[in-house]
Structure formats: C-alpha cells, structure tokens
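Batch 3, record 17
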Amino acid sequence: MSYCLNCHQSYMETWSWQAFLGLGIVPLLCQDCEGRLELIKGEICRICGRAFSLFPEQYRQGDCCFDCIRWEEDPTWNGVLQQNRSLYVYNDFLKEVIAKLKYRGDAEIVKAFYPVAKTSFRKISRNGLVIPIPLSEERHYKRGFNQAELLARGFSSQPALLLKRKTHEEKQSKKTREERLVQKENPFQVIDAEKLQGQNVLLVDDVYTTGSTLRYAAKVLLEAGAKQVSSITLAR
Amino acid sequence: MRFVSFSLNNRLTIAPEHLVNNPSLIAVPFSKLPSFSQPPLNPSFHFDKNLQHILHGKSLLFDELPFEVEKIHEHYENGYLMYSPGIHKTKYGYACSRCGNEKSRWFASFSCFRCKSDSCVYCRNCIMMGRVSECTPLLSWTGPEVEWSKANNLLWYGQLSSGQQAASQRFVDGVEGEGELLVWAVCGAGKTEVLFKGIEKALKLGLRVCIATPRTDVVLELAPRLKSVFPETLVASYYGGSDERDLPAQLVISTTHQLYRFKQAFNIMIVDEVDAFPYSYDKTLQHAVTQAVHPKHFTLYLSATPSNRMKRAAKQEVLPCVKISRRFHGHPLPVPKMVWSGEWRKRIAAKKLPAPFVMWVKKQAQSGRRAMIFVSSVSMLDTVTDIIKKHVSVIVDRVHAEDPKRKEKVEQFRQEKIQLLITTTILERGVTVPFLDVAVLGADHDVFSESALVQIAGRAGRSKDDHDGQVLFFHYGKSLSMVRAVKHIKHMNREDVT
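Prediction for the assembled complex:
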C-alpha cells in the first residue's frame, strides 16, 4: 500500500508484471489524482506543443497555433524558441497542485511528475543542457526553492544553473499578455557563457502561458552562444 | 533561515545571519544551533503593542508576521519573544511542533535556499498554513499578557427552553474553574443559545474564549451571530482565507485546523461537533486543541451524536454530561420511515431509479416543499440528478464537497430557488432550512453511519411552524446503522424533558 503524494489517501497499486519487474512507471499518485491529470496527446502545435483538440479550429493554421504564428511573424522573436513540449494540460486540478507547490511551498509534490518526465520525455532531454528558469534572489529566498529547478531534476540529474534573473518584477501570473510583452529589458542574464558555446539547450519551467518568459530566456542564451533552444514545461 | 550564535554578556545569544555584520561567525540552520538561553525580560523596553496583540497566545512563523525581521529580533533580545524549533528530531524520526505530526510519511525534505542545506526537513501535514521546516523557528510571545476587556455585555433577550436552561447553567457554573463538560443536544436543540450566558460570564471575567468547529460553513454562520449578541467584544473568525486573523480578539470562532496557530491562548474552549470528521479522525487536530488552551482551562464539547467512547465516559461519569433531548420548540424529532426499494445500485447503474423513490419524488415536486436527497457517493450524484430531472419539472440541483459553487447553491436552496437538492453526506450537519423534507437514497450503504443518519434526519422539522418534516430512508435491506439511528431518535424523543 502506498500513500498518494498529493491527497495523502492510501491506495493500492494495480498489479502488473511490468511493475513487478521494475520496468513500468511506478505512479506516486492515487488513481483518483492520476486520473485528473490530462497528458497532452494527439495533434499538437508544432512550436508551443499545445493540443489542438482543446481550442477552436479557427485559431489554427496548418500545424501551428495563432499565438505561435504571431511570435514567429515578429522579427525579434522569429525562431528564438525552437519548440516547446508540455507534459499536462493546465486544468483546474493541475492549477491546484502547482499552487500547492509554489505558494504553499510543498516541494515534495514535484516528485509525482518525475516518472513521466524520466520516461516519456527522455528523447527530448537526452542531448543538451537542461537549464531551469531561475527566480529572482528575493523570490527564491521567500519560496525557499525554485520549482523549475526541482522539475529540471526530473529530466536531468545535473541541471545547469546558467541563468540569473536580474530584477525583481511582479509575478508573471499577475500580468496580462500585453503587459508581459511590453517589458523592454530582458530580465535574464547568462552566468557562464563559456559552457553554453554551441550547445543545445532545454529550458525547464512550470507553466507555458504566453511563452514570453521562455522566449526572453532563450534570447539571452542564443546571444551568449547557444546553438538552439527548446523548452519543456509541466503544464500548457 | 540561518542564524549565528555568539557570546554576549556571558550568555550565548543568537541572531538571524543578516542582522550581524561579523564575517568570522558561521551561519547555520536554526536546527543546528547550539543550545541557547532566552534573554531576560527588559522591563524598560518599549514593546510594540501591535506585535503583542498579534503574537500573544500564538505560535507563528516569521512569514506570518507583518513586521520586519529586525523589529521581531529586537523583541527577542529584550526577552519579549521566544524562538523555538519548528521541527525537532525524535527517537524514530521527526515531530512538527506546530501540528504535532510525527508520521514519517508526512515529512519530506528539500534543498533549501534559505538555510543552504541539501535536505531541510519540513512538515506536509500543516503545509496549508505555511511551511514549517527545520530551519524555520516558531515565534511565540513571552512578554506581558494582553489585558482583555471586562466590558462584554450580552445583548440577547431570547428565551431558553428548559433543556437549554439546564445546560446553560452547567456551563455558567463551570466557567470559573477547570474541567470538561459534554453537552449532548439533539439536532435543532439550539446549541448556540446555550453558550451565550457562559461566554458572557467568561468574557466579563477577562477570559479568552474560543469556539472551534471542524467546518468552515459553521464558522461563517456563527461569527455574525456572536458579533451581534456581543457588540462590545472584539470577535474574530479564523478559517482558511479569513482576513480577521490579525485582530486581537477576545472571542475567536475558528476551524479546528486554524487552532494549529494558537498556543496556550484560551481559557474557555468550546469544541463543536466533536464527533465530526475530520476532528474525530485526525489526531493532530486534537493535539491542536490541547495546544491552544491555557494551562488553566475549561473545555465544553458539543455534539448531537457523541462517539461511543464519549458516551461511555459520560455514563461512567468520567466526563460530566448534560443532555438536551428536546428541540427548542418542544416538539419531538421526526422519526425516519424506512422504505424498501429493491436493488437500488443496479437500478441506478441502469440509469433508472427505484419505483418507490420515483413516486416520492413526484409527490414531493407537486407539494412544493423543498427536499434534500442524500446519495452515497459523488460519482452517483450526477446520474441521480439527471434521472430525477427527467421525472419532475421543478428546479433540481446537486452539490458536493468540492463544488466551487457550494456556497451559492446552498444559499439558493435556502432562498427556495432550488426545490430539490441532491447531495452527499457533506451537508448532513449545520444546514438549517425551514420547511424541509429529507430522503436518503441507498441508506443501507456503508457511508451512512448511525451518526450520519441521525444528523441527516435532524435536518427536518427544524422550525417551530414546521416541526414534523418527513424523513425517508430508501434501502435494499435495513443496515444496523439504520436500525440504530431510528432507535437513537426514538430514545431521545422518549427521554424526559430535563
């Protein structure tokens, strides 16, 4: 018997030969919580990785969503972020879990996502530097940890902490898309440019909303010498 | 966070690392500090009254106090405040000083940016109130106590029934001393009014009073009532999301969870619905109650359906007990009627309802009276609601514990905008709606315990003008709980009015 990492209820793992031989994914959530997570599947946007099935057909053009086309049309942002892939749909349940992680500070809960990160996303994370999106010094102190860094450990045992956040801005989650886009100064800074030269970089963050955070980070990385930058987030 | 320790006036003292400018001192996590002694109280220090009001009787984290670390530490240096470890090591693992949790699966560790330790252990049981970890001290007040007001008059001219009167008197008599009392009052006996006189007496003696209940709904319902009957008293409600938590309140209405934040605060502790989940279930909540009371205290337990353990203690006279077996309006409790309705599980699985139930629903819809229909699980809620909607044309809705619109729906039901409300056992307590009938579909299911059924039956006939509501248990073979619940109600009805 195990206890669910999220709701703490006891549950029985379903028995299988795969699990017995240690081949399958050992879930850390109970069936109920696991069932409320929606893995992103099916047709997705080539760039941002969101599922086409979840938004109206008219916002789609070929294999891209409207938001990504808007990004790519802008010469400053064209091709900055190679692609993004996300594990789960940002539904009410996941919102709750991420809030518990970030705002209550329950760091342990991130481990619930490690099994999926380790297996299904192995192909993406295998070759390249895994870099978590940093927090500003103040916020990092306040929270006690950086959730993106914890998440990055699910993709790589040695995440490279090569980015730094310069200023302490307002939380992204409290800004609108327009506000996020008008900020002029890039909040990120590269710490050790030498390690970046000619590398493929995989950025890790908790949520992809408009994609501006990831693109700002990607931009400084490319300017500092990275070959190409893609990203992976827990939720989309 | 990290602290440094150094010797000052022959005493080992500590300070948060960024307040001391001495590079030769090594900063360590709070839990790794050598043992240090509390600085003596400096009587000439001008302490912050605001801080005293917020912190007195509590146990809080730095993050919970709206003051700078400098200011807080200044109070420590002058002996007005104490730092104690949030998590401490035990023989077998860890214990959380705030919630008392000792189960190893409720502890986890993380690489902490504050104390730079790779594995800073924290408690996951009370994480909803902010993280208590090895490196975070809990702060409590050691300065002069708050002088509570003695001008606290009760503004209430209602009449107590004879049963209420007797219980009220027992409480009043107990207030000055120490001890316990169980008030075993049937649903609808008017428990709140029983408390008024005793609370008034305690407040007038300058004592601090707390009413704790397992559920937020009850806090929200009680707080305005108590505010209106004690207009001179500062009353605060504590629940997740409350904005009254910084008030220096003499009378506190709190969920049992929020009691984790208190420490030796209350002289009078009233625990409402002691038998209700999660209080009865969760040892750490019971720990919270014992932590929150002053060493000299009086505890009053309220329940309509005390647990067997409590009943036994009352019978053996270990726990003083007073019973109110009549409702405030003097009428007996409606006795549930059992209706055999075949294999309801199969019927529902086939998207149908048992015939006797359908007949009742149709009649109920025609009568224009409101009804609450209880089902055994959330998964059944939608199916049953949809089928009922096909049979009747009145407004039907459903509500469950995690329904984001729970508050609104219950309010709509009160205002007669919903006629039939289908629900799970969450609404078995506290909801008081006049002119109401209740039905339990599948009353033989395990979730319907004796106390749950008694509470459900207790929803009906609450008002003086409609004291004889209908209570129906639709079942496929009587369960022991059903039989016991009916017996319990009949027994209460037979008891002499004391």
